[in-house]
Amino acid sequence: MRKTPGNELALPVPKPGKGQQRWLHDALRQMILRGSLAPGIRLPATRDLSRQYGLARGTVASVYEQLAAEGYVAGAVGRGTFVAGELPENMQAGLRPLWRAAPQASSLPKSRLGHMLAASPFPLAALPPATPFRPAVPDLRAFPTAVWARVAAGRLRRSRPDWLQDGDPLGYVPLRREIAGYAGSARGIACSFGQVAIFTSVQQALDVCSRLLLEPGECAWIEEPGYPGARRVLAAAGADLVHIPVDNDGLVVAHGIRAAPNARLAYVTPARQSPTGVPLSAARRQALLEWAHRAGAALVEDDYDGEYRFSGRPLAALKSIDHDDRVIFLGSFSKLLFPALRIAYAVLPASLVEAVTGALSLVTRQTSSVLQVLLHEFIADGHFGRHIRRMRLKYRERAEALQSAAKRYWQGALLLPEIEAGLDVAARLTPDGNDRALAKAGAAQRLELRPLSAYAARESQAITGFLLGFAPFSPEEIDAGARQVARLLEHVPC
Fold first, then answer.
1. 3 state SS of 469
2. Are 322 and 293 in contact (CB under 8 A)?
3. Mean pLDDT of the region 247-267
4. How far apart are CA 101 and CA 33, in angstroms?
């Protein structure tokens, strides 16, 4: 596809004594070589460029002809003049054009917190389609794209001018009403829409809330092993992280009280601990809430995939028994629908609503209103509920397929617990092995094995194994991937 620049070109100021034609030729040539005008881009018409800079149209036409003769541009009758795909100097010198060059290291110094912020544990480029066993992703092939497109088309046809202006920093009110209702019915949380704030991700919500609540150097509890994304966000906010061990009942609250009784915040994944998958027991939940009340601390509850429970009663959220209004409940539609939606939400304590409103108004202004409107329509028309129910059945079938494959192929090598919920499961290496080396070897065979050891901040607390995703893969893909893993475990030294 041919590209067109803006209506005007920002050319350098002419130097005294330099003729107009020479100046224009050198300016355009340098813009092409620097990459300011990329290959394939269409130059302004001679009429437009001559009017912009007060030049004779014939002067501009002569410069275009000269650049074409030198190989910098190419003209097409009736279509215009375009920057050439190959540039003479670069071919002769064996150099790539600047627009293709690898980015150079910046000489600008970063702050201490800046280094933490830049150390993202997430991919820094777009991911290819998922292969077994990528965790933490839904089945995008099963998303009802035709229904979403129909909802979008119908809603956009009824769009109004007020969609085009700034909205509420906390988000589109009808969507927040739907989320408040859903939080009440599905997670047991009694809240008003006024306590619901829309974010682009749980990461963003945690970032904003931690900066509002923590002074640099104040203590924050975090699970060990635990979610690396939360660990990095809290560290970048200046928190002094206190790593609290996890056992079969979840976070060991008593250890946290001994280690840092006056911590200002605790980040927890009580529905399904990340990465072990164990739920926080009822006794531990009560102990955590009592500690937060005594310490005057905030609790951040990350409910990252609590909707997908395959057996037993649905677990009520920690916030549903929070009578002191200290829990910030975080949820996301990225794992429920599709990651590109980029809509998450927080159910806030009433005392934090005003501060979050101001912070969002300052740092993001608001999340895309158009996407919020479409998501609201999708939920209000019942499509969201039907999709969740359908995917819960599908994911249960796939969890069973993974457990069957593990029994057939991994006996004595990988220990898989019963899968009761979620999109993935923590499989332990038995005996302990080098999960990072195995993951690297698996990547060469297009296996995505996320090491469990990467979830620990301290080596002494690391568990070895893999976080295995099953949600995006058919039973046949799961079986084939499990056979590949079995061969890997046989032939790659741990």
1. strand
2. no
3. 98
4. 12
